[in-house]
């Protein structure tokens, strides 16, 4: 069954001079233009297409990929604004309409914004920047330590809000971030904890480092010391981005590794750095 606003695998019925005719199921025969045909496409083959509705409400298949499917969130550029609303480029021929009623704040041409794709009452695809209408503090289906996809949203006093798997809110604490993040960025993260009120705390590193991983980081620190005449200008007070640039770990993990090496009397902790013993 063909689904509007999603990627569908459709069967090729015939290939002609103007393109390929696809089996659109309940929507009948759909034309995929010649310029979008994958090479060697033949009748009977399946082709993956994103399907949207044109101005007349008819389904249109395209091999171009939309930035988001129905129910998903994406960082989009506003390319036009008129009396009806705004229009955003989302990677397919028809721009995504964002009605004024679904705008959290007034949009202007050239501005980027987070948009959730939905279907209106007529089945047409549209966008909303009122994310709180769609995204909830709902941790159902999540567990501590689970790897998740994040889209960075607004900065708060505590850190950055993020959309988890396109469906619920989480929080990345600023004092635990070891690298810069920006609004609209898509990154992998982990569920650090689920609070009693159902809100989700996030981390960019997997909670609970194994002994093997910690040994690997300790070894990397010792090797870096050996390669720099036994001294590194990094301490447990160094900025998280500097630590991540050097070893690819968070400040918390780096401090744990330093503590282990110090207890083993393999390093000295000095005011301006660490020294190999």
TrEMBL record:
Residues 4-64 form the Conserved virulence factor B first S1 domain. This is GntR family transcriptional regulator. Residues 221-275 form the Conserved virulence factor B-like winged helix domain. InterPro entries: CvfB_fam (IPR014464), CvfB_S1_st (IPR039566), CvfB_WH (IPR040764), NA-bd_OB-fold (IPR012340), WH-like_DNA-bd_sf (IPR036388). Belongs to the CvfB family. PANTHER family: CONSERVED VIRULENCE FACTOR B (PTHR37296:SF1).
């Amino acid at each position: 069954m063909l689904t509007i606003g999603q990627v569908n695998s459709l069967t090729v019925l015939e290939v002609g001079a103007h393109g390929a005719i696809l089996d659109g199921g309940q929507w009948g025969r759909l034309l995929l233009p010649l310029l979008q045909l994958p090479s060697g496409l033949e009748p009977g083959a399946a082709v993956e297409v994103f399907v949207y509705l044109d101005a007349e409400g008819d389904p249109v298949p395209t091999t171009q990929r939309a930035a988001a499917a129905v129910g998903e969130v994406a960082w989009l550029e506003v390319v036009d604004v008129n009396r009806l609303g705004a229009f955003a480029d989302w990677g397919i021929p028809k721009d995504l309409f964002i009605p004024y009623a679904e705008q959290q704040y007034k949009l202007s041409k050239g501005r980027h914004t987070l948009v959730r794709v939905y279907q209106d009452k007529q089945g047409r695809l549209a966008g909303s920047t009122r994310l709180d209408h769609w995204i909830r503090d709902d941790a159902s289906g999540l567990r501590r330590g689970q790897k998740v996809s994040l889209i960075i949203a607004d900065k708060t006093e505590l850190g950055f809000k993020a959309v988890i798997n396109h469906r619920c809110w989480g929080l990345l604490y600023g004092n635990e971030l070891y690298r810069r993040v920006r609004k609209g960025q898509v990154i992998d993260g982990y569920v650090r904890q689920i609070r009693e009120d159902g809100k989700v705390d996030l981390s960019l590193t997997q909670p609970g480092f194994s002994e093997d991983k910690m040994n690997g980081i300790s070894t990397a620190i010792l090797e870096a010391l050996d390669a720099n005449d036994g001294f590194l200008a990094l301490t447990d007070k160094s900025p998280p981005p500097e630590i991540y640039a050097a070893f690819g770990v968070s400040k918390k993990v780096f401090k744990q590794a330093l503590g282990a090496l110090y207890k083993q009397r393999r390093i000295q902790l000095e005011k301006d750095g660490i020294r190999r013993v």
